[in-house]
Specification:
This protein is of the alpha+beta class. The protein folds into 3 domains: 41-83; 86-135; 136-195, Nucleotide Exchange Factor Grpe, Chain A, domain 2 (Roll). 55% of the residues lie in helices and 16% in strands. The protein has a 3-stranded antiparallel β-sheet. Strand 4 (175-178) and strand 5 (181-184) form a beta hairpin. Helix 4 packs antiparallel against helix 5 (115-134). The longest helix has 42 residues, at 42-83. It is elongated, with a radius of gyration of 48 Å. 7% of the residues are buried. The model has no long low-confidence stretch (mean pLDDT 82).
């Protein structure tokens, strides 16, 4: 390099034309601000993407669980509907069965004969009972059991020495279950203890 040119380069001071510019503190802060405004770094974007993926996966699992629960509820409702679809039909046919049972009871009490009628109605009764059982309707016993408001409809009370108080002493109409659920309550008379004899009656 020529000696003159080298001397010229050495004589150039910062700030003069041709000298490399020095950054001030304010300019450095402005540069950092621009870099910050440029957006998050790749590491930050990756972490945000992972967090969003985790949230979406949790949301998917919850939605899948809700859908599975809905499917199970719908299946249970469908099965329940199938089990009790004949409830209205059975309610309508029960009075017919009641009348047949009363006819059989009267025929048995009649001493004048009527064996043929009794046999025919008895066969019809058996057929009715088989149909009811086929559709899941079964009678339940009430006489001698404790009075249960969820199964029995009390018509009144009757004095009884054979049955304990608050038990069913007489059944006026049978109760029925449909697949273990109450179809119709039994109409019953509830037992009560006979009155205590008066003191004068005890002495005599």
């Amino acid at each position: 390099m020529p000696k003159k040119k080298k001397e010229q380069e050495e004589n150039i001071r910062p700030g003069e034309e041709g000298a490399p510019e020095e950054l001030t503190a304010e300019e450095m802060r402005e540069g950092e601000k621009v870099e910050a405004e440029a957006g998050p770094s790749l590491e930050e974007e990756l972490a945000a993407s992972r967090e969003e993926t985790k949230k979406n996966w949790d949301l998917y699992l919850r939605e899948r669980a809700d859908l599975e629960n809905f499917r199970k509820r719908a299946q249970r409702d469908k099965e329940e509907l199938a089990r009790f679809a004949n409830e209205k039909f059975l309610r309508e046919i029960l009075p017919v069965l009641d009348n047949l049972e009363r006819a059989v009871d009267h025929a048995r009490q009649d001493q004048g004969g009527g064996e043929g009628l009794l046999e025919g109605v008895g066969m019809t009764l058996n057929q009715f009972h088989r149909v009811l059982e086929k559709f899941g309707a079964t009678p339940f016993e009430s006489v001698g059991t404790a009075f249960d408001p969820s199964r029995h409809e009390a018509i009144g009370h009757m004095e009884s020495t054979e049955h304990a108080p608050n038990t069913v002493a007489q059944e006026l109409q049978k109760g029925y279950l449909l697949n273990e659920r109450l179809l119709r309550p039994a109409m019953v008379m509830v037992a009560k203890a006979p009155p205590e004899p008066a003191p004068s009656e005890k002495k005599s």
